[in-house]
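Good morning C.,

I know you're traveling, so I'll keep this short. The sequence:
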Amino acid sequence: MKHFKTRAKALIMAVVMLAMTIVPQTVVQAAPNEVPMASLGIDVSRYQGLINWDMVAASGVQFAMIRVGYRTQGTGVLNEDPYARYNLQEANRVGIKTGAYFFSTAVNAQEAMEEALFTANLLDKYKITFPVAYDCEGFKNATSRQYILGKDIRTALAVIFLDTIAARGYTPMFYSSRNDMEGSSYWDMNILNKYKVWAAWYPAEPFPITPACTYTGVHAMWQYTHQAALPGIAGTVDMNVAYFGYDGIAEPKDPSGAPHIDMAAAAMVQYTDVSEVVTPNTADLNLRTVPSTASPDTIVVPINPGDMILRTGIGNNGWSRVVLGDQVLYAYTAYLDKVM
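The tokens, ready to paste straight into the viewer:
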């Protein structure tokens, strides 16, 4: 796929185009404050590190889907995204309309319910205007705990999560790739179409050059690239078009208020000590002085597949601690493979 970097000017242009775009691509009943005007947004997780939300807001972004947690593929341990509360707090503060998602690897009804309740309980003290989405990927890999599940069971687990989210007063949304949904290949879309659908498809020329997603099923949101670049986020980020918007910002369901999270607290990570040689599985992996992509000034050097470095720690924030010469640096864990 051709690499695409979204710049601030292009983003503002896209917002202008969106203001003239109304695409009725969902049969789901609209929320009372929903309006038929397209919106431009991002989705973020720990992999974006510490985000400068003031800069993101100034760039023209209208909404953000924030990952609140995930269940691991191998062991099934449920985890809060270490940046979830900070991202929710800051997106709320700068006036970006906020939604959320959970990355599920549930294998039974109890786990799907647990994920939904975890998500709703965390969100209740924040202003959640946009939908709350169920994200389930990787089940085709033999190492996934969901590998043995069929389409009907996976769909049923998604329904449990989404119905629980709806019962808590949030708008439920189902996320998947265009190919996995097309023709109900891996999900029963005849069932899941009763919810808002968020389709992922990355064309060679992202929006607005490619004006619409080619998924033939009804869908309310399109994730059109995972390689955008925005002010305030030094690394890449996913970008989305929602074919709807909202008049106003929702109030928290729990008015007692969320505890304040500062940047120092958000950056605190716990590392599991290891001593192993690793190599990148992607080209030009940046080694940084801090475990964050918030500033390009933190980049020390890029490394490539075949370059060997010593990893001394694996953090709970998606970063690894490595040693290069006499320097302690950081790199994305997902982009490192253990050699020995």
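Safe travels,
E.
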